[in-house]
Amino acid sequence: MSPPPTVTATAVILLWSSLLLHLLLLGSATAAASDACAAPRAPQAIYSSKTAYQLVHDDDTASQDVLRGCSAAYVWHTLRHGTRYPSATQAAKLAEKIPALQKRLRDNVAAGRAHCAPAALDRMLAWTLNMTEGQGNTLHAQGERDLQGIGHRLGLRLGGFFQRHPHPDNFTFRSTDTQRTQASAKWYGNGLFEEPIKLPEPLPDDPLLEFFDICPAWTAAVDKNKTARAEVAAFEEGPTMAAALARIADRLGFQEKLTYDDVSHIWEACRYAQAWDPSSEAAWCAAFDEEDLRVFEYHADMKYYYVDGYGHDINLQLGCPLVKDVIDKLSAYERREPTSAGAMYFTHSTAIHMTLAVLGVGRDVTPLTADNYETMKNERGWAISRLAPFAANIAVVLYECPATSDEKYKIRMYINEHPTTVAGCEDPDALCSWDDFKKRFAKVSASCSLDFCTRSAAAAGVGVGAGRLLHLLAAAAAALTLLLSTPAP
């Protein structure tokens, strides 16, 4: 038998310091509340894909109808549906898990263990899922306001253009076959035209707006493949997430560990309620400090990075249809063959994410991985809260310039109503050359095809970037070393 380890004086001091700190926290809930969930904060805009659009979009409605002598000539606009209710499955889980957590929290409060202000705890304990049977995945009233506002502000910014094209019939509308996208289209039209719009019959498995649903190769290689999300799982099981879970458990007075599954339901209750009412902090959001929120945001953003962003080559291969469409539509106008004054499409988050990636928006030099949270948490391009909240939208406006201009056409891209510089264009007003834009995406447009979707994942060219590949190889080598060094039983 080996001798017991020697306990140094330093170790004893550290141990007693740790115990004293823990006792101080347990014995002074009121003092701790001032540092944790005391007074309600301003609503946060860091809830990844469930972020409230109201907290993200550009409010500036100054006229942008004419820029440097060039007049708006064609509008291409693709939008994610507005704020929605959770799916029936998600709602059932919340209805099961949150009351169970509330019961345990009530016991913690009674025992004086919770480190939150009484008002914050009261709001958590009183919270219920405010939805009825049949509302699963449907557009919330806040989603109606989201889309109506987007349409209204677009009409203000491009007032002259819409005076020349005042009726919905002047435009091409297209939506997927869901209540939330079709209702979003109608509320957008109401805000823009102040009259009803006519939506064409939606296509089943629309190849333009639902290309991700008709690609078995991508489904097998990425969407249903846990290996494709290995970094996400590693982060979920790693020390950064463990520290966040421990902070939340301590804040709410849990003596036992809270699992990721436990806290993920608190996170969902928080961010849905926050999106439904962006005016004040939602009840369960008080359970998280800002660092906790950033940990959960990063976890969600990593999932989207690998499932439908830059994390796998097949995502960029699949995400071309809408980029091809904008090139085709603007080229038709340039040839004086437009079929309408603009195109307005209503789709889902996956289509938005993939289109952003193909456009080069939010691209990071370093991949998002399980071990670079600290360097990426505040400074990363792939920030879904900012790029793709509820009602996320991408607009490209074609501007026609006078004969005296150096170019006949220019374009301006907007992400969530913010003028956004196209990669390779350094214009301070984000007014970029149409010829350059067209050339930049000519290869994407010319080669865009979903034929690969029916081939096997391997044949489809599933791959990762070089940085990600090196990371995977290093992880595999470390795992193999550990395996070889472990003695046989």
Helix content: 40-55%
Shape: globular
Secondary-structure-derived class: alpha+beta
Biggest sheet architecture: 8 strands, mixed
Mean pLDDT: 89
> Helical stretch count?
20
Quaternary state, please?
A: single chain
Encode the helix/strand succession as letters. Answer: HHEEHHHHEHHHHHHHHEHHHEEEEHHH
Could you give the distance between the termini?
Answer: 19 Å
Annotation, overall tally of beta strands? 8
Rg from Cα? 25 Å
Strand content: 5-15%
List low-confidence stretches.
Answer: 1-35, 464-489
GO molecular function: acid phosphatase activity; bisphosphoglycerate 3-phosphatase activity; inositol phosphate phosphatase activity
Disulfide bonds: 70-401, 270-285, 425-432
Signal peptide: 1-31
Keywords: Cell membrane, Disulfide bond, Glycoprotein, Hydrolase, Membrane, Signal
Compile the SSE list and pairings.
Blueprint: H1 9-27, H2 29-33, E1 66-67, E2 70-80, H3 88-110, H4 118-126, H5 141-157, H6 159-164, E3 172-175, H7 179-193, H8 216-223, H9 230-236, H10 239-251, H11 260-276, H12 290-308, H13 313-318, H14 321-334, E4 342-347, H15 349-359, H16 373-376, H17 384-387, E5 393-400, E6 409-415, E7 418-420, E8 431-433, H18 434-440, H19 442-447, H20 466-485
Parallel strand pairs: 2-4, 3-4
Antiparallel strand pairs: 1-2, 2-5, 5-6, 6-7, 6-8
Disulfide bonds: 70-401, 270-285, 425-432
GO cellular component, one term: plasma membrane
InterPro entries: His_Pase_clade-2, His_PPase_superfam, Histidine_acid_Pase_euk
